Known about the structure:
The complex is a heterodimer of chains A (about 550) and B (about 325). Chain A is mainly α and about 550 residues long. Chain A has 16 helices and no strands. Chain A has one domain: Cytochrome C Oxidase, Chain A (Up-down Bundle). In chain A, helix 15 packs antiparallel against helix 16. Chain A is globular and about 65 Å long. The longest helix of chain B is centred in the first third of the chain and has 32 residues, at about 1-35. In chain B, the strands form three sheets. Chain B has a five-stranded mixed β-sheet with strand order 3-2-1-5-8, covered by helices on one side. With about 325 residues, chain B is α+β, with helices and mostly antiparallel strands. Chains A and B meet through helix 3, helix 5, helix 10, helix 11 and helix 12 of A and helix 1, helix 2, strand 7 and strand 9 of B.
Amino acid sequence: MASATIPTAERENYLNKGYGIKSWLLTTDHKRIALLYLITITFFFFIGGFFALLIRLELLTPAGDLVQADTYNKLFTMHGQVMVFFFLIPAVPAVLGNFLIPMMIGAKDLAFPRINLLSWYLLVIGGVLMMYTILTGGVDTGWTFYTPLSTQFSNTHVVTAALAIFVAGFSSILTGLNFIVTIHQMRAPGMTWSRLPLFVWANYATAIIQVLGTPVLAISLMLVALERIFSLAIFDPQRGGDPLLFQHLFWFYSHPAVYIMILPGMGVVSEIVTCFTRKRIFGYKFMALALIGIAVLGFLVWAHHMFVAGMSLYAALVFSLLSYFVAVPSAIKVFNWTSTMYKGSISYATPMLYAFGFIGLFTMGGLTGLFVAALGIDVHVTDTYFVVAHFHYIMVGGMVIAYLGGIHFWWPKISGRMYPEGWGKLAALIIFIGFNLTFFPQFVLGYLGMPRRYWQYSPEFQVLNVLSTAGATILAVGYLLPMVYLLWSMRYGKIADENPWNAAGLEWMTPSPPPTFNFDETPMVTWEAYNYDELKEVPVER
Amino acid sequence: MAGNVDALYIFLLILCGSMALAIFTMITVFAIRYRRRKGHHAEQIEGSNALEFTWTFIPLGLFLCIFLWGAVIYFKERTPPQGSTEVYTVAKQWMWKFQHIEGHREINELHVPAGRDVRMIMTSQDVIHSFYVPAFRIKQDVLPGRYTVAWFHATKPGTYHLFCAEYCGTMHSGMIGDVVVMEPAQYQTWLSGGAAAGSLANTGQGIFQSLGCSTCHRFDTQGRGPNLVGVFGKTVLLEDGRTVTADENYIRESILNPSAKVVSGFKPIMPVFQGLVSEEQLNALVAYIKSLNPPPTGAAGTPNLKPPTGQPPETNR
């Protein structure tokens, strides 16, 4: 690196630029906003995780004995809402994407720094509404808000919950918009589209979904709220409405939202795998294309959530077929990551352990997707624990693992300190074991016929449920560990230099932590992404 | 049906299991073989179009096979055979109510004969529920305001779980029951044991008369409403030129909201019955109207003399 002398501690960076509360709450620095997001979603992750733990404890025994039926229903509802809308969707884009995208493309900030701050405030407002909903008694419609249960029968705080998600949705839309404009307009000289890191491609694909899909969710939730408040009849069959209409509207967003919750994770893993194999990504163009392919095809498969909902036979056939098409680009990605390892020089730092975990668990989640996309099988397993296991393999096994991998990988850049490697590896291992013990038995439970969202269940399902609950407690320990040692490392961790992994990518060519405007001078890019062969020789050109 | 579903399931387990195993083996082998060590350097590889096309099109081909297999099973699951025994079902928070054609009524317990096709004609009184019998590998959501249909063919006598599979509020997990499959002879005994107040169609006939339906829907051509004999299953020409098949949902709609689809040649003068008849009464009415044109094999209810009619595209008289 030609950025010469590396004065670390004293050098002005985005963290020591100002210490007052105003310097944070009114900041327009994408890196500071990323940290605000990090704190916010970590808070919600532990709230949602706490609900999950209570759910698993209730299911330790077949009888409904730990909490009341209504309480249980609220727990799984709010677990879903908090985790999906206040953790998973913002997780990688709003934290890592926010922090990294400008640096990765050689920009000073996002295109609209103030809108970026506004996005965070919207998430906070949504979060406050969600907390208000939780603290005043909660909501029990399931995170899916299915009508007419949500519109006519539930006596809980449906409207405030819907409003919370409505507002948080705009946070997501604005972040997506910001990313799209930034990636189009703010790339450094020489940073062509074909030189973008796949992490940027992944967030770009995600942003498209956020911008196009989220408004539909906003509309559907608004309709639910309006129907409740003004007693409209949009979803009421007694008065000519159609409850299935809601499901179509809801899944039109919420299926693509699944890809909002996995594509950025794929981006993270591509960065990690290349770094720790010291190799170019295998089939860069196909990897980028696959991301866009998933984003586009993801819009065409929503009704595969509705194969038993009362849809026409032929509609079901079409949606099943399209679901298999969207499986293809996912398969391509797995094959390419695997091939990237071929003839690499592989080391096993914590981020790479997470990447291994991601590929394995995402593969499991993807392959079980082939089961649920098969119409004949879906009829049996839909709305059972099979589906619960399937999407947790994608969202936790995929996204949460990728997110943690990313946090560890870029921690030196974010905090300027190294995390303790030994603890990192231990936590990764505990999470991997805990995760599989929690969710693998659920595949079996589902095929045996245990429906999801059951407060009490038939005694023959108990053994598998006990295993699952045991896994969940292990998983909880696994999640608490990084929380502790990452905080510890902010003060006591080894000081990180600008590129501790010797990784490719512009974000590693600026000090750790980076200065407020990322680069002292705008970099000029003359190399392809993942230039691990020529890494040492490439200077930042002027 | 369970056998069909399990066959595909086992096929997928083997296929996906070996795919997963292949990928995990490759990752493990690469991770060990190419671990970082002295004197070993990564070898840069751009990629390979040939490989990319291979692992695009081979999986796609496999996926399409799975799709077809799954679709064939689904097609069977969604197409009840002719001449099934019919059971009307009303789901409500939080119980299952069944009405047999013979007039028997049950709650959270459904008796059916082994070796017969059973067709469930289901509706909900409130929210969306889902009729799920894991042992039969069938599931169908039960919606308010319309009929949905599921069918099964139980082979082995025994008692099987019935679960509600669509979250429906507080006691969702308590909305469970038993499907009791009996030997046909035993089933006959069970049928004759219960004190049914006449067949479901008979009950329907009573309601038909007490609501005054019979004043207009006469069994000749003089009525102010269409003659309902032989209507079920026919294609009906509507006043606005559309045609519609007179299935259970059409009859249901025509009772609750008659002006939605008016038969050609008639005036929209029938009163609305939405809110005036319960779901159970509605089922009885539908059963009665169907009995005016019984299913081909005369599966249930009174045997009749009419030949099977099929569904020829003929217009209503």
